[in-house]
Amino acid sequence: MYDVLIVGGGPAGCSAALTLRMRGKSVLMAYSDRGALEKAALVENYPGMPHISGRDMIDAIRAQARDLGVEIKESLVQRVLPMGDMFSAMLGNELAQARAVILATGIPRIALLPGEEKLVGMGVSYCATCDGMFYKGGNIAVIGAWNEAAEEANFLATLAHVTYYTEKPHETGTLKPEIDRSPLKPLGLTAEGGRILIETEAGSDAYDGVFILRPAMALSQLMPELETDEKGKIRTWDQYRTSLNNVMIAGDLQGPPYQIAKAVGDGNIAALQLIRQLDE
Ligand SMILES: Cc1cc2nc3c(=O)[nH]c(=O)nc-3n(C[C@H](O)[C@H](O)[C@H](O)COP(=O)(O)OP(=O)(O)OC[C@H]3O[C@@H](n4cnc5c(N)ncnc54)[C@H](O)[C@@H]3O)c2cc1C
Fold it and tell me: What is the whole-number distance in angstroms between the Cα of residue 60 and the centre of ligand 1?
C-alpha cells in the first residue's frame, strides 16, 4: 500500500512525486508511452535549463525522483478503482493500492471507437491478463495501437483464436503466426446475440470478445467515477481537488497554459494539498 499513486510520469507527475517524497510519503509513479515533454525537440523557456531537449529534461527529472525513493513503473494504468478510503489500480498486469491518487496524464487525446464506451465490460476489454480467461477456446479480436499490443495478443492466442486489427500503425512483426491479421480498419463496435461486432468498411465481423490495446486510457475508462462537466473535463475545486476525496489532478490535464513550468508548479501544489489532507 503506497501513500500516493501518481498516474503519469511527465513534469507534473514527477514534480508531485518529488514533493511527496520530500515530505516522507511513499509514492508509486506509473507512466506509459511518450508524454508531451518527450516530444519537445528543444526547450528554451524553462528557468535554469537552457537549450535542453525534452527527452534529456524528463530523464533528468525521473532520475532525481528515483534517487529520492519514488518507485517508478513504465506501465499503462488501465483503471483506478475507488474502494472506500483507498484506491486499487491495474498497472499492466499488476495490482497496486494507494491511499490517494494524483492524475497527471497530460492532455487526453484518446478517441474511442463509436459504440466502444457502452460495451466495456460486456465483451470489450482493455486488459488481456484480467479478462483473457473468459474467452478460453473462443474467437476473439485484438484492436492494437502500440507495440505492446502484439505481446498481449500473443498471450491471448494461447487461450483463444485471435484476429488482429491495427488501429494505428505500430510494430507487429512479433505476432505469432497462428494469429490472423485483418487488413481492415475498425470503424465502430456493436453487440448482437451476445457477441461483439467490429464494423469495417467491408461489413462487420462477430467475436466472443474484443480487446482494445492502446498506449493510454480515456479518462472515462481510467476513472469513470470522477465528476466531469458538459465538455467532459474533470470538475475541480481549488484547481486541483476532484469530486473524489484524495484524488487530485495536475499539469496539462488540469488545464492551460500547456507549459512545463505550469505543470511543475501544479504537481507541487497538488502534492502539498494532498499531504495536508492525508495528514489531517
Ligand atoms: C512537441 C511539443 C513541444 C513542446 N515544447 C514546450 C516548450 O518548449 N516549453 C514548454 O514550456 N512546454 C512545451 N510543451 C508543453 C509541455 O511539454 C507540456 O505542457 C508538459 O509536458 C505537460 O506536462 P504533464 O506532466 O502535464 O503531461 P505530459 O508531459 O504529457 O506527461 C503525461 C504523462 O502521463 C502518462 N500517461 C498518460 N496516461 C497514462 C496512463 N493511463 N497510465 C500511465 N501513464 C499515463 C504519459 O505516459 C506521460 O508520462 C511542448 C509540448 C509538445 C507536444
Answer: 15
What domains can be seen in the chain, in order of their start residue? 2-110+217-279 (3.50.50.60), 116-213 (3.50.50.60)
Q: How far is the CA of 224 from the centre of ligand 1 (A)?
A: 22
Ligand 1 proximity of 51 Cβ (cutoff 6 Å): no
In the numeric block, which cell numbers belong to residue 203?
Answer: 461489413
CA of 172 to the centre of ligand 1 (A): 26
Query: Cell triple for residue 239?
Result: 484547481
Please tell me the distance between residue 104's alpha carbon and the centre of ligand 1 in angstroms: 9
To test the pocket of ligand 1, the residue of 5, 19, 33, 37 to mutate (highest count of ligand atoms within 8 Å of its CB) is 37
State the distance between the two ends of the chain, measured CA to CA, in whole angstroms: 19
- The alpha carbon of 167 and the centre of ligand 1 are apart by a number of angstroms equal to 23
Q: What CA–CA distance (Å, rounded) separates 82 from 91?
A: 15
DSSP letter assigned to residue 246: T
Atom of ligand 1 nearest to the CA of 40: 3
pLDDT mean by block of 10 residues, the chain; 280 residues: 97 98 97 86 90 94 97 94 95 92 88 89 84 94 91 95 95 95 96 96 96 83 89 88 96 90 97 95
DSSP 228: B
Per-residue exposure over 15-38, b if at least 16 CB sit within 10 Å of its own CB, e if not:
bbbbbbbeeebebbbbbbeebbbb
Enclosing H/E stretch for 38: helix 36-39
User: Would you say the CB of residue 221 lies under 6 angstroms from ligand 1?
Assistant: no
Q: Which of 105, 107, 100, 88 is nearest to 30 (CA)?
A: 105
Residue 216: its pLDDT value, please? Answer: 76
